[in-house]
Structures are given as C-alpha cells and as structure tokens.
Amino acid sequence: GLSDHFIFAGLVPPADVPRYVGIMNALVHLSLREGLPRALPQALAAERTRFPPVYRAVVESGLKAGRLSVALEGLANFARNFAEMRRAIGMAMVYPLVILTIAYGLFVFLVLVILPRFLATYSFFRLPGDRILVVLARLRETLPLWGPVVPVALVLVGVWWIQSGRAMLVQSAWARRTLGWLPWVRGMITNSQAACFAELLSLLVEQEVPLHESIRLSAQATGDEDMIEQAGELAASAQRGDSVPVALRTATVFPPMLRWLMVTGLERGMLASALRHAAETYRELSLHQASLVKQLLPVALLLAIGATATFLYCMSVFVPLTELLYELSAP
Is 262 exposed, middle or buried (0-12, 13-18, 19+ CB in 10 A)? Predict the structure, then answer.
C-alpha cells in the first residue's frame, strides 16, 4: 500500500515508524473509500502538522502527473541514498573520534603529570622556561574550565546526530549547511536535489501540467528553501508570460548543466526529455559521490585528526625536551 512506500523504502526514520504507520493507514483507507486523487491531497492537507512539506509536495506532484508511484519511488531513492550517506558518515567518524578521545586523554595526562616534571627540571637547573611550557602551564591552571569541554561536546554531538536524521532528510538545505564542510557531501546533496527536481518536473511536463505550477511543485519536493524561493520567482515569471529561458539564466540555485538543459529543452520543445536526461546524469553523479564518501571519507578524517594530534604532541613534548637537552649541553 501507500504506507509501504513511505516506511519500507526508507522515507520514515525507524523512530517515527509507529506514528507514521497509523497516519498512513488512515490516509490509505480514506483514499480507498473516497477515491485517491480527490481524498489524498485533502487528507495530507488536514495532517499538515504531521507530514513535512516535502512529502506533501511529492504526493501532490505525483497525483497531478498521474504517476504517484514514480514520484514516491524518486523520493524513496533520495531518502535511501541520503540515509546511506549519513550512515557512512557516522561510520567514518568512529575511528577518528576514537583517536581524538585517546589523544585528548593523553594531552590531559601530559598537562597534569608530565608538565610538572618538565617545570621541576627547568627550575632545578635554573633554566629559562620554554614558551611552549609557559602556555602549557597556563592551560594547567585553567584545566577545570576547559577540561570538560571536549567530552561534553562529543556527547552533545552524538545526541544531536542521533536526533537530527529526520530533520536533515526533510530540510536538505540545513543538511547541506551542516555537513557541507565534509568532502564530497555538499556535491552529493546538491546533485540528489537536482535529480529529484528534474525527475518530478519531467513527469509534470509530460502530463501537460502548467509550467509555472510544475516548477513550483518540483522545487517544493526537494525541501531546499533556496531552491523553493528561486523556483517561485521563476514560476512567477512563467505565469506572467515572461521568457523562462532568460529567467533561468539568473536562477543560480540550479546547477549550471540543469539550467542549460532546461533552456535548450524549452527552446527546442524537448523539455521533458532534457529533464529526464538531467535527472539520470545527476543521479549517477550523486551515487558516485556517495561511493567516494563511503570509501575515502574515513581515511581523510583519520589522516587529518591523526596528523593534527601528532603535530601537537611533537610541539608539546619533543620541542621542550629538545630545548632542555640543548640548554644542559651548552657550556
């Protein structure tokens, strides 16, 4: 049934499954009783506080195009790819966070145990204090202030990561801002949105839904606020009768290739086929970048954190030790 599309295809996070099962079953029964095309949009509108706008937009787009199953499948693919990417990022963070935790514990041990011995040795031989030792001594004095920061931050980040899955799925712009600093993640999310937009728009154009309405619905289905805003301006231009290709050239929220294909398709009367080609291309790009995230992100994070920890330990231990030996060997 329709609820299976949402639940088993990965659209609903596991924690929300019980709540969504009841809601979707009620909607399905209502739709079967009164007629799906007429009742489902009304039922979704009545439950707007429980269903994110992206779900409602996809269902409305699918109904208008007469291809509800295809629209739901596209959203399910996006949700599945995003869930796999999020799982890959979580797994990629495990080993680096273990290294970070060990390195932080050793640094605290250095400040509490090793540093006093360095300072005592410098004082015993009446040697001038090294700059790094002075900084470490100040850190030791303020340890009660900064010591709990990293453990508490790690716990908060873990709780936030567990609780943020559904918010990232239905608000992809927020997900892009939050995870976009990671290699390949921003591009993967952007390409997934472009594929979703192009696929839904091609379905609506094929069914001769008015272009301004098709653009607005397809953008709403991506969940990206920036895309929704610029698509609204583009739809308004189309509704006024302005040149859509001209307006598209300034719609920078859309990827360049998607803009070019849309302009070319409009000028040649082949918009639907151009959009299908764009959807396939961006979907393949998204899958390729998701593969890079799974394979290379753990290595990149591990190298970055490991190299940073090694550098800090060299500066904190070996530089003062070398300076001490140099001072002792001086005539």
Answer: buried
CA 255/CA 248 separation, integer angstroms: 11
If asked whether residues 82 and 128 sit together in one domain, one would say yes
Residues 6+ apart with CB under 8 A from 3: 20, 21, 24, 25, 27, 28
pLDDT, residue 256, reads: 92
Residues 81 and 47 placed together within one structural domain of the fold: no
Query: What is the separation of C-alpha 209 from the centre of its chain, rounded to a whole number of angstroms?
Result: 31
**Claim to verify: residue 85 and residue 45 sit in the same structural domain:** no
Residue 64 lies in a domain: no
The C-alpha atoms of residue 184 and residue 193 are separated, in whole angstroms, by 14
Ranges of the chain with pLDDT below 70:
1-54, 68, 72, 74-75, 78, 81, 164-177, 331
Specify if 126 maps to a domain.
Answer: yes
Give a yes or no: residue 248 inside a domain.
yes
Is pTM beyond 0.85 here?
no
- How high is the pLDDT of residue 140? 92
Q: Please check whether residue 57 lies inside any domain of the structure.
A: no
Measured distance CA(124)–CA(212) in Å, rounded: 81
> Structural domain of residue 17, as residue ranges?
1-51
Query: What's phi and psi for 278, nearest 5 deg?
Result: -65, -45
